[in-house]
Design goal:
By secondary structure, the chain is an alpha/beta fold. It contains six helices and nine strands. It has helices at about 5-30, 80-90, 90-95, 110-120, 130-135, 180-185, and strands at about 45-50, 55-60, 65-70, 100-105, 125, 140-145, 150-155, 155-160, 165-170.
Length: about 180
């Protein structure tokens, strides 16, 4: 009876798998496609993005204040309007409590201008059209509706303290659009 040495075959397969994994890891690393998800205790990024007026919004502009950084899917939709109006209607109370509100969606500046004007929003909205901020905060993800999968923004709110540290996260399952300000205060 002839003996079969399986070692070369298994060794070849393992080295091939390792080579493929190394290639994938290096590809993601060099293309900077890694996903960074912000957690409680993490330092928020200094540069937040460009607002509806084309101005760069920096976290340091809000030094000494807590920042409500809320991510929402789309301007002028029912849920997003209800959430923005809850924050608008309670804006004075939020400011008295030391909060500043900043909204973020992937809509463009013109869309944000119309949304602000139509709903008389007293706070700024970041136009994250390049999706940098939603990706850094980990809120750009696959969503499903009516059996269809697509990429979109998860409705999430990050409360950032006076030192720029995330102290609270209101997750998509926890956000109440009509009562969002009360969830913060």
């Amino acid at each position: 009876m002839r003996e079969i040495n399986l070692f070369p075959s298994i060794f070849f397969r393992l080295t091939t798998i390792i080579a493929i994994l190394n290639f994938l890891f290096l590809s993601l690393y060099t293309l900077n496609l890694s996903i960074i998800i912000m957690n409680i205790g993490d330092k928020a990024p200094e540069t937040l993005g460009i607002n509806e007026k084309g101005e760069e919004i920096l976290l340091s502009n809000y030094k000494g204040k807590k920042v409500v950084l809320y991510f929402y899917p789309k301007d002028s939709t029912s849920g997003c309007t209800a959430q923005a109006c809850s924050l608008r209607d309670n804006y004075t109370e939020l400011r008295k409590a030391g909060y500043e509100v900043i909204g973020v969606s992937v809509d463009n500046e013109k869309s944000h201008q119309k949304f602000i004007e139509k709903n008389e929003l007293p706070f700024t909205l970041i136009a994250d059209t390049d999706k940098k901020l939603v990706e850094v905060f980990g809120v750009w993800a696959e969503k499903k509706m009516y059996g269809r999968s697509y990429m979109g923004t998860l409705r999430t709110t990050f409360i950032i303290n006076e030192e720029g540290i995330i102290e609270r996260i209101i997750t998509p399952k926890e956000v109440s659009t009509k009562n969002h300000a009360q969830q913060i205060i």
